[in-house]
């Protein structure tokens, strides 16, 4: 795990927490001022975002700790646990929004000062867009699952703010039911996003393989090293920032042990350059026994 990774991930976590705090108080006042259920939906989502971002901040600090005696493989999976917890928070907020939207659909209430809601939602959209762009940049640089999950909240917020502007605009021009309809639509969108986030987190906890493009890249890097006659039993996974790569090299039967070790070192160096900080385990097999059962190898 590099110092750059730690710095970027912590910066993104702090940025999300501070942004969520500011948006929460801004939306709280605006909801009180306008009475919009769409703004209530956005307010509740911002509250969940703040709780999730604070959780992320704590978890990221823990996940960045190096391996210790009790956790030989590090603490990276804490990021996946954080993403799973966040998805549970989001499901709860989505259900709350759906219930409020349905209630307002059948019991519409006149909005007060919708123009204020449009203005505040516009400001929130700009602030959220800047945060999302920063988070996406951090995710591209680090691959952090915790930041990717947190970014999903704010992408939902971005769409929500745009929807609120449209809903309040329609309500302003005499279509008050639009406020409730958009609140329901936002709730459904958030619910779907939460289930997707939970699925990805569970798959990571179950040690899902790296994407097929990465597997092919690893295979190519290893198999093109001079002296390597084949590669098999490639196994990969990721926990937090750390990728784990295990593979078997097929080498000439008559190679000296020191030469086999040198070839494996070259493969490891290539993989380390392509995947900095990766935990790499390489086993050398004589090519003549590949594919044979243990009994046949005797």
From TrEMBL:
Domain Cation efflux protein cytoplasmic: 213-286
Protein name, per record: Cation-efflux pump FieF
Catalytic activity: Cd(2+)(in) + H(+)(out) = Cd(2+)(out) + H(+)(in); Zn(2+)(in) + H(+)(out) = Zn(2+)(out) + H(+)(in); Fe(2+)(in) + H(+)(out) = Fe(2+)(out) + H(+)(in)
SUPFAM superfamilies cross-referenced by the UniProt entry: Cation efflux protein cytoplasmic domain-like, Cation efflux protein transmembrane domain-like
NCBIfam families cross-referenced by the UniProt entry: CDF, PRK09509.1
Family membership noted in the UniProt record: Belongs to the cation diffusion facilitator (CDF) transporter (TC 2.A.4) family. FieF subfamily.
Subcellular location: Cell membrane
Domain of life the protein comes from: Bacteria
Self-association state and partner proteins as the record states: Homodimer. The subunits are held together in a parallel orientation through zinc binding at the interface of the cytoplasmic domains.
GO MF annotation terms: cadmium ion transmembrane transporter activity; ferrous iron transmembrane transporter activity; zinc efflux antiporter activity
Alphabetical UniProt keywords: Cell membrane, Ion transport, Iron, Iron transport, Membrane, Transmembrane, Transmembrane helix, Transport, Zinc, Zinc transport
Residue ranges of every copy of the Cation efflux protein transmembrane domain listed in the record: 14-206
Transmembrane segments: 12-33, 39-60, 81-99, 119-138, 158-175, 181-199
UniProt KW Transmembrane helix keyword: yes
Record's bilayer topology term: Multi-pass membrane protein
Keyword Membrane: yes
One Gene Ontology cellular component: plasma membrane
UniProt GO BP: intracellular zinc ion homeostasis
Main location: membrane
